[in-house]
Design goal:
By secondary structure, this protein is an alpha+beta fold. Helix content is 16%, strand content 31%. The chain contains 3 helices and 8 strands, in the order E-E-E-H-E-E-E-E-E-H-H. The strands form 2 sheets. Strands 3-4-5-6-7 form a 5-stranded mixed beta sheet, covered by helices on one side. The longest helix is centred in the C-terminal third of the chain and has 12 residues. The chain is elongated, with a radius of gyration of 27 Å.
């Protein structure tokens, strides 16, 4: 069920092919199929470069595919887990994190996807439109990589890192004394 990258070559340094696991859409049926995928060390290294990580130790995903809506569309549900090393935003030291996430996407042939009008009213509760099927293939490896990038901590920080330790104070800076405005008001008060 899972094929090679679309170009039948080993993944290269181009974006989108670091972790490719292609499923042929015609092979997906109304019975849910499950695929478990795992990035090998080379794919982890390439994904780490793409996602600007210090290291990607592991990436595993379980993806379930099923035909829905009368068989015209394919629902893809997945869970992923990864062990990553990012850079602390305070100390710039390495920070290890475990990432776990879930995702769901509907794919459809282009002719079934409604055209999006130029002026769009945004409804946060509205259902996402389907993604177009390209070349009768769904790259579940790329889906896992994209959702890993969304699940990463945008501000990784070591638990013991505090900003107060890294704020440099100017020793020559003297606090400015400001007059108390209430003292001036007290002087204006008339005795009874």
């Amino acid at each position: 069920m899972i094929g090679k990258p679309a170009n039948d070559q080993a993944p290269g340094p181009e974006i989108g092919v670091e972790f490719s696991r292609v499923v042929i859409a015609d092979r997906v049926s109304a019975d849910e199929m499950t695929q478990t995928i795992k990035a090998n060390p080379t794919e982890c290294r390439r994904l780490a470069e793409r996602l600007d990580l210090v290291d990607l130790k592991s990436l595993n995903a379980t993806v379930r595919l099923k035909r829905v809506r009368g068989g015209q569309m394919i629902r893809v549900r997945g869970t992923l887990e990864a062990d990553v090393t990012q850079t602390c935003v305070v100390t710039l030291d390495p920070v290890d994190n475990h990432v776990a996430d879930e995702f769901e996407i509907i794919f459809a042939p282009r002719h079934l996807i409604p055209e999006i009008p130029l002026e769009v009213e945004i409804d946060p509760d509205a259902e996402e439109p389907p993604e177009p099927l390209v070349g009768n293939q769904i790259d579940i490896g790329e889906l896992a990589a994209q959702h890993l990038s969304l699940a990463l901590d945008p501000y990784p920080r070591r638990p013991d890192a505090g900003f107060e330790d890294h704020i440099e104070e100017d020793p020559e800076e003297v606090p400015v004394k400001r007059p108390n405005p209430f003292l001036a008001l007290a002087k204006l008060k008339r005795p009874d």
